[in-house]
UniProtKB/TrEMBL annotation:
<dbReference type="InterPro" id="IPR036291">
    <property type="entry name" value="NAD(P)-bd_dom_sf"/>
</dbReference>
<dbReference type="Pfam" id="PF01488">
    <property type="entry name" value="Shikimate_DH"/>
</dbReference>
<protein>
    <recommendedName>
        <fullName>Shikimate dehydrogenase (NADP(+))</fullName>
        <ecNumber>1.1.1.25</ecNumber>
    </recommendedName>
</protein>
<dbReference type="InterPro" id="IPR011342">
    <property type="entry name" value="Shikimate_DH"/>
</dbReference>
<feature type="binding site">
    <location>
        <position position="221"/>
    </location>
    <ligand>
        <name>shikimate</name>
    </ligand>
</feature>
<feature type="binding site">
    <location>
        <position position="249"/>
    </location>
    <ligand>
        <name>shikimate</name>
    </ligand>
</feature>
<keyword id="KW-0560">Oxidoreductase</keyword>
<comment type="pathway">
    <text>Metabolic intermediate biosynthesis; chorismate biosynthesis; chorismate from D-erythrose 4-phosphate and phosphoenolpyruvate: step 4/7.</text>
</comment>
<keyword id="KW-0057">Aromatic amino acid biosynthesis</keyword>
<feature type="active site" description="Proton acceptor">
    <location>
        <position position="69"/>
    </location>
</feature>
<dbReference type="InterPro" id="IPR013708">
    <property type="entry name" value="Shikimate_DH-bd_N"/>
</dbReference>
<feature type="binding site">
    <location>
        <begin position="130"/>
        <end position="134"/>
    </location>
    <ligand>
        <name>NADP(+)</name>
    </ligand>
</feature>
<comment type="similarity">
    <text>Belongs to the shikimate dehydrogenase family.</text>
</comment>
<keyword id="KW-0521">NADP</keyword>
<feature type="domain" description="Shikimate dehydrogenase substrate binding N-terminal">
    <location>
        <begin position="10"/>
        <end position="92"/>
    </location>
</feature>
<feature type="binding site">
    <location>
        <begin position="18"/>
        <end position="20"/>
    </location>
    <ligand>
        <name>shikimate</name>
    </ligand>
</feature>
<feature type="binding site">
    <location>
        <position position="242"/>
    </location>
    <ligand>
        <name>NADP(+)</name>
    </ligand>
</feature>
């Protein structure tokens, strides 16, 4: 009988920056599983051919990153509800002979908060700073967890309005200038803007305006302690960094390809932190 091949990939263009091979490679080794996970640079013009030949090339599935997250919609047989709502695919797998496209970023976001701030979804209104691709995944997660007051604040108001239209009830759109007032009764503040990343060190909002019981999370993870988290911690607020989102979003894919639900451990976290060159 032919051996069952369990190989997976991350495709993007470029792809050198991806941390996914570190994460999945660690789990393959930790669980002693036969299989591989490799980063493959696929140019946009080669995407359709790559997807068409997946099974022939021994792949069980893989991750999809920029710039293919939308283009791949046309190339799969089925889309899971999260990917449909978010408008982007980041994970591919075969099920009953069909190629599925899913999105695990919402799972990653919620699982990270579950680990470090249990009960977060019942903490009150949520302010989401930013209205890009990551914000879509986060608003999906918030709605799934039953949050009924989601306030999107974005520099370009039009993009916040687009997300309000997309997600409907319980979602409102605001300009940056309104943030101070909105924060006064906010239970969870989420930064999804690129502000706070190395080289872009501004503060997307001032946590001074938040109530004492608020939770603050930043999905930017380089640096791990962003200016927003440092300011919130200085105020004594509960803070959750963005690395856990990256690690937890990898869990559902690994389970689908390799048949084992992996655990996000401090060992994995330390490994990825060292790879990123960030300190706790
Ligand atoms: P995106 O689609 O390009 O959206 C970027 C957002 O940031 C937009 O809302 C943009 O506002 C806002 N922004 C950028 N520069 C700004 C500035 N100077 N002042 C105010 N707002 C600014 O990017 P994305 O895919 O959503 O990713 C956003 C960040 O999340 C990135 O840093 C990414 O690395 C991180 N991320 C982390 C994870 C994780 O697992 N932790 C997952 C996904 C993404 P406008 O609409 O006005 O341009």
């Amino acid at each position: 009988m032919a051996e069952i091949v369990r190989n997976a990939f991350v495709i993007g263009h470029p792809i050198g920056h991806s941390r996914s091979p570190k994460i999945h490679g660690h789990w393959l080794k930790a669980y002693g599983l036969a299989g591989s996970y490799e980063a493959i640079d696929v140019a946009p013009g080669d995407l359709a051919g790559f997807i068409a030949d997946l099974q022939e090339n021994g792949f069980r599935g893989g991750n999809v990153t920029i710039p293919h997250k939308e283009a791949v919609f046309e190339l799969v047989d089925k889309i899971d509800p999260a990917a449909g709502q978010i408008g982007a695919v980041n994970t591919l797998w075969f099920e009953d002979g069909r190629l599925w496209g899913g999105n695990t970023d919402a799972h990653g976001f919620a699982a990270n908060l579950d680990e470090y701030a249990p009960g977060w979804a019942g903490n009150g209104p949520v302010v989401v700073l930013g209205a890009g691709g990551a914000a879509r995944a986060i608003i999906h997660a918030l709605k799934e967890r039953g949050v009924r007051d989601i306030r999107i604040v974005n520099r370009t108001l039009e993009r916040a309005h687009e997300l309000r239209e997309r997600f409907g009830d319980g979602v409102s759109a605001h300009r940056l200038e309104a943030a101070g007032e909105l924060l006064s009764d906010t239970g969870l503040l989420v930064n999804t803007t690129a502000l706070g990343m190395h080289g872009n060190e501004g503060l997307p909002a001032d946590p001074a305006a938040l109530p004492d019981g608020a939770i603050v999370t930043d999905i930017v993870y380089v640096p791990l302690e962003t200016p927003l988290l440092a300011a919130a911690r200085g105020r004594g607020l509960k803070c959750v960094d963005g690395l856990g989102m990256l690690l937890h979003q990898a869990v559902p894919g690994f389970e689908r390809w390799f048949g084992k639900r992996p655990v996000v451990t401090s060992e994995l976290r330390n490994l990825v932190m060292a790879d990123l060159g960030v300190r706790a």
